[in-house]
């Protein structure tokens, strides 16, 4: 891998444009847009307040930057530096802002879940939707039909509203009540045909709806402790993985909408011939006087050490996240009871394919969007870990920078590059590149790496 120089950032605000030509970053009260070919500034602007959010429009020409405290949104055009648009929300406040898929209208979520205001950049007119249940979840877009799906709360009951979301015309297409006690979130299937909704964690209840309000599936478990914690659709929309606080993943199919198997994440792992267990190890090298990190393959059965959860809200237990790879044949899962471990399941054979055991708790993990068997992991140290399939094995890359700890990683949509973030700095790593002018080899020593402002 090749790495760029380090750049400062705030609040992990570093985002590629959808066409990958630009990368936008925030450092305190300054937004910088850089060309990804040369990493030279294309546009830079600032305000007296610090920015808390940035979002690219779908066509990669417009960037919005917002401060929720002041309720102010600034929109700039990459191709026309002199153009700008400022939106100021009134007494209702601002908690979140999103682009609509058209890239020419903006959604502003007010405080106290009072309303959503859609502002058109073409007409400068607004459209209001009342009573959204949340400001940071409970909504999604169906881009094929320009539809907006929203969880709403009216008279202590949960509803789903389906809206037509053109740039200049917004209207309610359908609204229906859902059979939840207290809806926690919703997720649209990749094919845009189904909506899965689930209840708050104290009830284990999952429901599947079509966009016209027909309930296709209703699954619940009585007296089973806490409920649903994470959900993931397969890319084909034929399967949905439901991770619970009970340390199980239940796989549902799109024929019966009922569990076909329960994937267990226990502390005792029997190592059979189809399973490989990769365990990180650290050895001191006498020649270089430094520690060498590697993976060992464990042949015998393994017993994992479970973490005792804290006695407080949102305890660290159960399936905190699960993610399908790009072709839906593999499923990675992180059980918060075992923070150092990552399970990789073979969906075709419904069996455990690999178990990765790290020395430190896993912070983030992401599948490569193109290379379907490549998974990247970070653990808050100076390394990025890769699992590259059962036959290609694993790889550990050290970020060649001084005092740089990897706390977050994000793949670019082409699968050839990723943003690697420290708490205050970031760099971009390229797996295949010819950017000799801006890249540095992973084998080089970055002992005097400059910090660009």
Automatic annotation (TrEMBL):
Superkingdom field: Eukaryota
Entry-linked InterPro entries: Centrosome-WD_assoc (IPR052778), WD40/YVTN_repeat-like_dom_sf (IPR015943), WD40_rpt (IPR001680)
GO terms, biological process: microtubule anchoring at mitotic spindle pole body
A family per Pfam: WD40
Cellular component terms (Gene Ontology): microtubule organizing center; MWP complex
Protein name as annotated: Anaphase-promoting complex subunit 4 WD40 domain-containing protein
């Amino acid at each position: 891998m090749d790495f760029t120089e380090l750049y400062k950032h705030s609040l992990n605000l570093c985002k590629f444009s959808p066409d990958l030509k630009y990368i936008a970053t925030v450092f305190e009260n300054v937004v910088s847009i850089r060309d990804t070919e040369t990493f030279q500034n294309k546009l830079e602007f600032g305000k007296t307040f610090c920015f808390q959010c940035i979002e690219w429009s779908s066509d990669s020409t417009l960037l919005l930057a917002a401060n929720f405290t002041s309720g102010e949104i600034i929109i700039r055009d990459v191709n026309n530096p002199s153009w700008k648009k400022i939106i100021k929300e009134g007494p209702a406040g601002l908690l979140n802002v999103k682009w609509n898929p058209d890239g020419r209208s903006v959604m502003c979520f007010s405080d106290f879940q009072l309303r959503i205001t859609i502002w058109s950049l073409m007409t400068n007119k607004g459209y209001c939707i009342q009573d959204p249940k949340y400001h940071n979840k409970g909504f999604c877009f169906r881009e094929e039909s320009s539809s907006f799906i929203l969880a709403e709360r009216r008279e202590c009951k949960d509803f789903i509203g389906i809206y037509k979301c053109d740039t200049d015309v917004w209207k309610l297409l359908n609204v229906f009540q859902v059979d939840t006690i207290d809806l926690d979130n919703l997720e649209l299937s990749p094919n845009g045909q189904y909506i899965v909704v689930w209840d708050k964690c104290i009830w284990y209840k999952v429901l599947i709806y079509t966009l016209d309000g027909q309930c296709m599936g209703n699954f619940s478990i009585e007296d089973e402790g806490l409920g649903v914690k994470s959900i993931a659709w397969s890319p084909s929309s034929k399967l949905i993985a439901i991770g619970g606080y009970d340390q199980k993943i239940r796989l549902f199919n799109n024929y019966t909408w009922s569990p076909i198997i329960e994937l267990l994440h226990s502390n005792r792992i029997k190592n059979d011939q189809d399973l490989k267990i990769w365990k990180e190890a650290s050895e001191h090298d006498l020649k270089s006087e430094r520690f060498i990190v590697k993976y060992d393959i464990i042949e015998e059965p393994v017993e994992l050490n479970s973490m005792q959860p804290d006695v407080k809200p949102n305890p660290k237990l159960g399936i905190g996240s699960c993610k399908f790879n790009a072709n839906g044949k593999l499923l990675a899962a992180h059980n918060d009871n075992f923070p150092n471990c990552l399970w990789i399941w073979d969906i075709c054979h419904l069996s455990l394919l690999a178990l990765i055991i790290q020395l430190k708790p896993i912070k983030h993990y992401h599948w490569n969007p193109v290379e379907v068997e490549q998974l990247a992991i970070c653990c808050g140290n100076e390394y990025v870990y890769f699992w590259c399939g059962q036959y290609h094995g694993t790889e550990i890359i050290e970020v060649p920078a001084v005092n740089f700890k990897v706390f977050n990683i994000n793949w670019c949509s082409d699968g050839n590059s990723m943003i690697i973030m420290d708490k205050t700095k970031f760099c971009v790593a390229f797996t295949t590149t010819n950017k000799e002018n801006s890249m540095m080899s992973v084998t080089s020593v970055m002992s005097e790496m400059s910090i660009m402002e």
